[in-house]
Amino acid sequence: MQKTIQIPTRLEDSIDAKNSLALDEVPVIEQCIQNTDEKGVLHIEEHALLLILEGSISLSAGEQALTVYKNELTLLKKGTVLKYEKKGDQQKDNIYHEMVVILKDNLIKSFAAAAEKITPKEANGKVRAGVHTMTECLITFTDSLRPYFNHSPEVYAGQLRLKLTEMLYHLGIGNSSLFHELMQLRQPVQTEIREVVAQNLTSPVSLTELAHLSGRSLSSFKRDFLHIYNQSPATWIRNKRLEKAKEMLETTQLSVSDICFSLGFENLSHFSRIFKDYHGQKPSFYREGLK
Predict the structure, then answer these.
(1) How far is residue 287 from each of residues 202, 249, 261, measured CA to CA in Å?
(2) pTM for the complete prediction?
């Protein structure tokens, strides 16, 4: 099963209201429990913590990839687009259970203002880039949230704000690396265009989304891109994808459709047409060359 998910999920699109706790009609804590594996794309519209309670999830953007296992978490930064693959625990009826906590800017700023006296501990054991082990306190915290989902109409906004603050203190005290990641979210950072494009070259993201990822307006993104590459972003990205497609056709056994969709093209006939316009031959010409 493959799908596109926005974080936070809009309430009107939610399949089950019991899986979402909201403030002012905006989800702040969401959970997903399923027993089927799933692949798709995540559009991160707000900073969020992804906590895995059963199973595992693999995330990738460009050449960067990580896997988060049971009782681990990772910080998802807003404005990013990630491919994901969820896998359930085979020894527990293939159950996959995640919890997503949305970190609004005002929550982060409020916590940062009160966190000056926190002295976070160094993480114990082996550390993987971008992945953090949940402390016992944090695991207990997620357990304390479960009854809220079953009685969400009875949960007051003040309760949720207290729970979110409690969670940030657990994070801040229990892991120095994660604490510093959270503190860095206070200041928006303009990202190097080359880095953003390299990470998302094969992702189905729009120019508006790329501009957002780089911390720029669309007009500023186009202007800076043209200054660096001497081409419009739409033309340059399309040509790079077509060059990569030709390389994959010549060096792999992937089907034309698999190559098309893996490089961010969403229509096979359109891909075939512009491929021929650019390379002078249909994709099938290079595939036949391998036979």
Answers:
(1) 20, 6, 16
(2) 0.65
